[in-house]
Design a protein that fits this description.
Arc Repressor Mutant, subunit A; globular; mainly alpha; Four Helix Bundle (Hemerythrin (Met), subunit A); 5% strand; DNA-binding; 221 residues; homodimer
DNA sequence: TTGTGTTAGATTGTCGGACAATATTGTGGG
DNA sequence: CCCACAATATTGTCCGACAATCTAACACAA
């Protein structure tokens, strides 16, 4: 657990609501409501808002307060292009660390559900598993700063925003790619792991290109 | 100019002081001093602190307030490894955009001082020029999200923290590498631009490895 | 002298209320 | 139905308060 302070707690709670789509993209966060609900002061909530905004979870519009972040198509594409690099790097490094038992073990544990019988049912469940999978790669890469950076890219947020365009076929393809990546990493083949990961991300980028305009925010003000 | 609010202004002013080493790594920021100096309330200052912390400029230690961020060696190395990827990507993309007149022109303008007679004198001046150069690459890459990310890596901050280990030789080598990168980008040779940039970053990483322990923070708490 | 416990002061964490500025909503007239 | 305008809701910023915690000075014993 990071900071044990009250504020960190609030930040986490709001973050969780966003990542689990209990708060959806574009939704407005009214100070009065949240202070009442959490039983905290406006000062504290506003500090939490600042932090959440700097971390990319919400957006602060002058004189209009906080809204759950909603990406434009261009922002989403930029984000996925960056992820392609960072996650390629992470997969490469992760593969190179699979000979360390502790690293290997925790990666195996985190990915074993990919090979279980249980089918992923809904979009919401997929989003959570997807996030867990990608996080596992970053953790296995052993660069904490990188993990932090990846977290700030808000994968669950954007997937939730685009969830209306997720089809069963896409989920199946994604799952298959996750398996390939996992096998490449576990085999210790860094080049293959990086290549598979980049392919996966390129496909995700193409997916974003095809999502109907209505799911995005119009102007990136 | 981004947000026109009062808070954004305060954030910028503190940021500038850090980037120009008027506030140095590890230095403590006392709320009472800054509220008096800026003529603002504690609420506002504390919101600014939150944002600066989330952006990596300062660190908030529970019950001890804000200090200008001071990296451990490991954090610095992690940061440079990430930069190697992101800046390689940026250089590649920048090279691919040099045929667009506007992009080319602004990149040429930003880099022309690299080829002027004027020698960089002190470390402080080098740090500023170094930041400007690297930012120019990210801007030329045409991915705003990426530029933002790069900014949050706080190059001036870390260079300032390590400035005690900068020698004339290092500055000269760096300048030479900057020139090579610039030429590769201007030539539109993406592969070469990326390679040269990665080499430059790898050398920077090696530099970090050799810096005496005293310039780093001990435990990354 | 040096180490140590204590106490006073400095600083932060959080709260509550206040008020102007701005945004949103509701209402009546055209 | 659309527009102007008043009423309300919400945010931006300030102030002062208080307990919790940290820091520094100081006295005292070894």
């Amino acid at each position: 657990m990071s900071s044990t302070g009250k504020l960190a707690n609030i930040v986490e709670r709001i973050e969780t609501r966003i990542d689990t789509a209990r708060l959806v993209s574009g939704q407005r966060l009214i100070e009065a409501d949240l202070t009442r609900e959490f039983g905290i002061s406006r000062s504290l909530l506003r500090e939490a808002f600042r932090q959440l905004a700097a971390e990319g979870a919400i957006e602060l519009v002058p004189n209009r307060g906080a809204v759950v972040r909603r990406l434009s198509r261009n922002e989403a594409l930029e984000l996925f292009e960056i992820r392609t690099e960072l996650e390629g790097m992470a997969a490469r490094r992760a593969a190179g660390r699979m000979h360390e038992p502790a690293v290997r073990h925790s990666f195996e544990t985190a990915t074993q559900c990919l090979f279980s019988e249980a089918q992923t049912s809904g979009a919401q469940e997929y989003i959570a598993e997807n996030e867990a999978f990608h996080r596992a790669i970053f953790i296995a890469a052993g660069n904490d700063t990188l993990s932090d950076l990846a977290r700030k890219m808000r994968l669950p947020l954007i997937m939730s925003q685009l969830s209306g365009a997720l089809t069963a076929g896409i989920l199946a393809t994604s799952l298959e790619e996750h398996r390939s990546i996992t096998l490449a990493i576990l085999s210790g083949n860094a080049a293959q792991a990086e290549a598979a990961t980049r392919e996966h991300l390129v496909r995700a980028t193409q997916f974003v290109s095809g999502v109907p305009e209505s799911l995005f925010r119009s102007c990136p003000d």
